[in-house]
């Protein structure tokens, strides 16, 4: 049985992992901090670590991307997409009378910063008086609310989290945009694919440009363009070595073993760029996962 490291019970990550593996039995190891989720696979405590890397509304989860690049050297082995459905969580009896919600009683809203950002408008419209507090995960937020009864505390998080910590969804689906999806990856030493499910092949690479090379990025991009290799994401991030030094993170819709991608990487290296492959893996979209073979 596979062991998966992930954020605490009741997080969006937890829902997403349960969804990914469906009926397959997996052992889940929950950690409070994302750093411990990363380290679990490094230390051999888990076969894979589940990491949220990108969100429709917030874009890249920078902290997690930085851990992938700078702190650990474990390949990405699978990617999947899951909707982040956020809800306002608290105790019904504290905020509702005769089934009607009284938002003016809310003094504090706790959540993960990415989840909080997904519900900005909802919070501003309904509870502008509330203090906002960012914590390590949506589940940690829900647990804190459970530990402070009668103090006007609420959390933004999942229905699964509300159930786990004995609270109620006070308002459901409170994200500002309907199409709120999060991209997750599994990192680990071994290859992984879901049997009978359609997947797109993807390769994630990091490209560091040589200093003082005018047009270097243009040339890198042309190596992909004339081979008709599709880039689905490109993003610059600081190298953390020198102010103004950046590397480019790129997702290419092709397997690293393919002749075309191999040749493109060779050409980019010949230009004097450094290329690091972060992983070459199957990518599952939300609808593909729902379709049984
Ligand atoms: O706190 C959680 O529920 C998480 O799973 C973390 C996380 C994230 O880090 O982006 C995952 C997805 C949600 O969009 C918000 C938060």
TrEMBL record:
Phylogenetic placement of the source organism: Bacteria, Bacillati, Bacillota, Bacilli, Bacillales
InterPro entries: ACT-like_dom_sf (IPR045865), ACT_dom (IPR002912), Chor_mutase/pphenate_deHydtase (IPR008242), Preph_deHydtase (IPR001086), Preph_deHydtase_CS (IPR018528)
Span of domain Prephenate dehydratase: 2-189
EC identifiers of the protein: 4.2.1.51
Domain of life: Bacteria
PANTHER family in the cross-refs: PREPHENATE DEHYDRATASE P PROTEIN, PREPHENATE DEHYDRATASE-RELATED
Reactions this protein catalyses: prephenate + H(+) = 3-phenylpyruvate + CO2 + H2O
UniProt source species: Paenibacillus physcomitrellae
Pfam families (alphabetical): ACT, PDT
Pathway linked to the protein: Amino-acid biosynthesis; L-phenylalanine biosynthesis; phenylpyruvate from prephenate: step 1/1
Domain ACT: 205-282
EC top class named in words: lyase
Name of the gene encoding the protein in the UniProt record: pheA
Protein name (record): Prephenate dehydratase
Keyword vocabulary terms for this entry: Amino-acid biosynthesis, Aromatic amino acid biosynthesis, Lyase, Phenylalanine biosynthesis
Gene3D superfamilies listed in its UniProt record: 3.30.70.260, Periplasmic binding protein-like II
């Amino acid at each position: 049985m596979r062991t998966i490291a992930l954020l605490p019970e009741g997080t969006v990550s937890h829902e997403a992992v349960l969804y990914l593996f469906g009926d397959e039995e997996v052992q889940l190891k929950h950690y409070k901090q994302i750093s411990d989720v990363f380290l679990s696979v490094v230390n051999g405590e888990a076969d894979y670590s589940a990491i949220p890397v990108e969100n429709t509304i917030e874009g890249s989860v920078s902290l997690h991307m930085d851990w992938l690049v700078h702190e650990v050297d474990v390949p990405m082995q699978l990617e999947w997409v899951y909707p982040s459905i956020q809800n306002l969580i608290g105790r019904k009896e504290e905020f509702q009378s005769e089934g009607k919600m009284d938002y003016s009683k809310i003094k504090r809203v706790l959540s993960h910063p990415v989840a909080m950002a997904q519900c900005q408008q909802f919070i501003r419209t309904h509870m502008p008086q509330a203090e906002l507090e960012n914590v390590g995960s949506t589940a940690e937020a829900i647990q804190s609310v459970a530990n402070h009864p009668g103090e006007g505390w609420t959390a933004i998080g999942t229905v699964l989290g509300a159930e786990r910590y004995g609270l109620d969804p006070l308002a459901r689906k409170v994200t500002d945009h309907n199409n709120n999806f999060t991209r997750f990856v599994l990192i680990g030493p071994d290859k992984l694919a879901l049997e009978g499910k359609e997947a797109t092949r993807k390769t994630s690479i990091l490209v560091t440009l040589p200093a003082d090379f005018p047009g270097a990025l243009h040339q890198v991009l042309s190596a992909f363009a004339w081979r008709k290799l599709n880039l689905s994401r490109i993003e610059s991030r600081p190298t953390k070595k020198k102010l103004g030094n950046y590397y480019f993170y790129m997702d290419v819709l092709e397997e690293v073993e393919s002749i075309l991608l191999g040749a493109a990487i060779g050409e980019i290296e010949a230009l004097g760029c450094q290329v690091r492959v972060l992983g070459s893996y199957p990518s599952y979209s939300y609808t593909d996962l729902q379709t049984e073979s």
